[in-house]
């Protein structure tokens, strides 16, 4: 079990000892989306969304920006919510959080490695 503790927080808040994380595989033309991995984690309500997201990303072996989180009620976590506490999102014990790998189109311009004038 993963034990996520609050970062620089005076009060720890309430401990959720059973939050289920489901990592879903990508749907294919021949199959629907299915659970690839599942974890049970503990966390304090004063933990930030970013701390939670980065710890789950470590478990999955991905960078945090490549994971999408869907909270109960089909709420997708956006980047502007990274500073929120988990309590602000209305999370309860035994809630199931669905995660998916997302692809991000990144534009990286090419640069000359050698200056032709030298």
Unreliable runs: none
Largest sheet: 6 strands, mixed
Number of helices: 1
CATH architecture: Roll
Q: Provide the number of structural domains.
A: 1
Give the total of beta strands: 6
Rg over CA atoms, rounded to whole Å, is 18 Å
Oligomer class: single chain
Distance between the termini: 57 Å
CATH topology, by name, is: Ubiquitin-like (UB roll)
> What's the CATH superfamily, by name?
Phosphatidylinositol 3-kinase Catalytic Subunit, Chain A, domain 1
Helix content: 10-25%
Q: Report the mean per-residue pLDDT as an integer.
A: 81
How large a portion of the residues is in β-strands, by DSSP E? Answer: 25-35%
Describe the structure.
The protein has 118 residues and is mainly beta. The protein has one helix at residues 49-60, and strands at 2-4, 15-24, 35-44, 67-71, 75-76, 96-101. A hairpin with a 3-residue loop joins strand 4 and strand 5 (75-76). It is extended. The mean pLDDT is 81.
Short description, anyone?
With 118 residues, the protein is mainly beta. It is 10% helix and 31% strand. The longest helix has 12 residues, at 49-60.
């Amino acid at each position: 079990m993963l034990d996520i503790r609050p970062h620089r927080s005076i009060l720890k808040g309430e401990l959720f000892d059973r939050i289920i994380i489901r990592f879903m595989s990508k749907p294919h033309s021949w199959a629907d989306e299915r659970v690839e991995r599942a974890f049970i984690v503990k966390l304090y309500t004063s933990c930030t969304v970013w701390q939670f997201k980065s710890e789950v990303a470590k478990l999955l072996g991905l960078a945090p920006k490549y994971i999408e989180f869907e909270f109960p009620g089909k709420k997708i976590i956006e980047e502007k919510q990274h500073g929120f506490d988990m309590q602000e999102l209305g999370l309860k014990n035994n809630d199931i959080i669905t995660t998916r790998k997302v692809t991000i189109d990144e534009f990286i311009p090419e640069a000359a490695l050698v200056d032709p004038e030298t």
